Amino acid sequence: MDSTRIIELISYTLPTLLMGFIAYNFFELYTKNEAAKRNYLLQKETKPDTLSIRLQAYERMTLFLERINPSQLLVRITPISENKNDYQNYVIAQIEQEFEHNLAQQIYISDECWSIITTAKNATIQMILLATKNEAIINANQLRETILKNLLEKQSPSSAALAFLKNEVSQLW
Questions:
Q1: What is the DSSP letter of 114?
Q2: Are the C-beta atoms of residues 120 and 160 closer than 8 Å to each other?
Q3: CA distances to 9, 21, 22, 67 from 13, in Å
Q4: What pTM was estimated for this model as a whole?
Q5: Contacts of 19 (CB under 8 A, 6+ apart)
Q6: Residue segments in the chain with a per-residue pLDDT below the cut of 50
Q7: What sign does the dihedral 135-136-141-146 (CA atoms) show?
Q8: CA-closest candidate to residue 165, choices 124, 123, 115, 104
Q9: Within 10 A of 147 (CB to CB), how many other CB atoms are there?
Q10: CA distance 126 to 173
């Protein structure tokens, strides 16, 4: 082959390869853009439904925190006997039952919020356990009174978690 034939071959091949490369890049960019557009439209359609479900989850967790607040819990649950240990076990069982009823809500709220709610539940249970260990308390009614007096001195764990939950919901807007 002579040099003119090689130059002629390159002059036809190089523009063809360049056009193929440009066409490939345009096609790849177009398909990525179309996929992003489909994802955006799908999210746009489902966002109102998702927001509604998330708000319902936050509402249920707010109700849970209100229900395990010792100031409301101890008024709502009357002692089943005079034995403080029986009352302690009954109240803790009520808290755990309420928590288990709301376990599925963790799907719709942030991990940090769920962690704070779980911590509030555990702190409330711990508060009840510590009050029960007090030797000066001899019956269930004294246990209720002691826990309620302790709440006058400090904020309940569920109140702190409720404040965090409200802040997180306000960020959804």
A1: H
A2: yes
A3: 6, 12, 14, 77
A4: 0.72
A5: none
A6: none
A7: negative
A8: 115
A9: 23
A10: 35
- Which tokens is 68 given? 């395990």
- How far apart are the C-alpha atoms of 140 and 7, rounded to whole Å? 101
| Cα distance between residue 168 and residue 48, in whole Å | 18
Number of other CB atoms surrounding residue 68 within 10 Å = 25
pLDDT digit string, tens, across residues 35-56: 999 888 877 776 677 788 899 9
Torsion angle, alpha carbons of 115, 116, 119, 120, to 10: -150
Per-residue pLDDT, 46: 64
Q: What is the DSSP secondary-structure string of 125-160?
A: HHHHHHHHH-TT--SHHHHHHHHHHHHHHS--HHHH
The whole-angstrom separation of Cα 40 and Cα 95 is 41
Q: Identity (one letter) of the amino acid at 16?
A: T
Residue 113 confidence (pLDDT):
96
Output the six-digit token pair for 47: 């966002």
The span from the CA of 164 to the CA of 158, in Å, is 10
Q: What is the DSSP letter of 27?
A: H
Q: Do residues 127 and 164 lie in contact, with contact meaning Cβ atoms separated by under 8 Å?
A: no
Q: Where are the alpha helices (DSSP H) in 69-102?
A: 70-76, 84-101
Looking up tokens 């928590």, which residue turns up?
99
